[in-house]
């Protein structure tokens, strides 16, 4: 069975938001919205993502980061309602 991680966040500080986004790209996730990343993972990668985020945010305040792991079938069953929306920085919307 294959899995998808969905990471969403509200982060006020630009620098911290940038660090989290870069980290999520490094672990192989793709930006699907300005404050959301998703991508296929093995279940063990969730722990690595969580540990990496905790390491980055340990000296910061005012953030909310949530990590969801679901089957690829569940993720594929989502509904996307969008018109004329593009991800900044040439990121592409992930379609699994």
Could you describe the 3D structure shown?
The protein is an alpha+beta fold and 96 residues long. It has a single domain, classed as Alpha-Beta Plaits, CATH 3.30.70. Helix content is 34%, strand content 29%. It is built from three helices and four strands; from the N terminus they run βαββαβα. It has a four-stranded antiparallel beta sheet with strand order 2-3-1-4. A hairpin with a 2-residue loop joins strand 2 and strand 3. The radius of gyration is 13 Å and the shape is globular. It starts with a strand and ends in a 20-residue tail after the last helix. The C terminus is likely disordered.
Quick recap of the structure?
The protein is α+β, with helices and mostly antiparallel strands and 96 residues long.
List strands and helices in order, with pairings.
Elements: E1 3-11, H1 14-26, E2 30-33, E3 36-41, H2 43-57, E4 63-71, H3 72-76
Antiparallel strand pairs: 1-3, 1-4, 2-3
Helix pairs in contact: 1-2
Q: Which residues form runs of ≥5 with pLDDT under 50?
A: 89-96
Please state roughly what percent of the residues sit in beta strands, choosing from under 5%, 5-15%, 15-25%, 25-35%, 35-45% or over 45%: 25-35%
Query: Could you spell the SSE succession in H and E letters?
Result: EHEEHEH
N-end to C-end Cα span = 14 Å
Record the strand order, biggest sheet.
2-3-1-4
User: How many helices?
Assistant: 3
Question: At CATH's second level, what is the architecture?
Answer: 2-Layer Sandwich
Morphology: globular
Share of residues in helices: 25-40%
CATH level 1 name: Alpha Beta
Number of domains: 1
CA radius of gyration is 13 Å
Count the strands? 4
Average pLDDT across residues?
89
Briefly note the CATH topology name: Alpha-Beta Plaits
Structural class of the secondary elements? alpha+beta
Major sheet description? 4 strands, antiparallel
